[in-house]
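Teaching note: in complex prediction, the entire set of molecules is handled at once rather than each chain in isolation. The prompt given to students was simply: 'Predict the structure of this complex.' The entities are:
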Amino acid sequence: MTVRPRLGICVSGRGSNMQALLRAAQRGELLADPVVVFSNHLDAPALERARAAGVAVEALESRGYASRADYDAAVVQCLQPYDCDIIALAGYMRIVTPTFLNAWPGRVLNIHPSLLPAFPGLHAVEQAWSYGVRVSGCTVHFVDAEVDHGPIIVQRAVSVLPDDTVDRLAARILEQEHDAFVEAVNLVAAGRVRLEGRRVLIEPE
Ligand code: GRF
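The expected output is the structure of the full assembly:
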């Protein structure tokens, strides 16, 4: 990995996690340089935010590709000139294939709004709230071939309050997501993580 790793960020929607990474970079608190923001939607609000922050943006709609792997091959080709060391999936609402993962082996991170392995998949906050858990939170993990499954880098717990609504809980979890993602990207960028099986060992600074 280069001294200042190059970070690519993939988004599908509003991009508050992306924004947290870009803001950390602007404050000089991110150990990687965001070089591109990619979206699978041309009209993702996140792209406007990325442009405003002066980061290159790329977008490719997935319609018209014969398979997920074909689409991912096009995404990899689109991102190739940016020479990313780390990819952060920041609300990227697509399942990535091995074609994607093999382009950045062991260097693709995802953020998920639950304490995995509880409540993988869509609507995680709603799932946790309806289940009646007392504690939920968020997880940043390495991405592997299974959905919301890879080795866990950072987790943050958030208590469910007696008068919570899904929206209030989601907002408190989102706040934690923003910090947790910066922390996880920094650990990986600093080369401080090592895998032992699926356990992520963190080297002291
Ligand atoms: C976040 O809750 C993230 O954990 C999940 O999708 C949501 C994206 O939100 N994967 P944002 O676009 O980062 O605001």
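Point out the following to students. The chain has a mean pLDDT of 97. The first strand starts at residue 6 and ends at 11.
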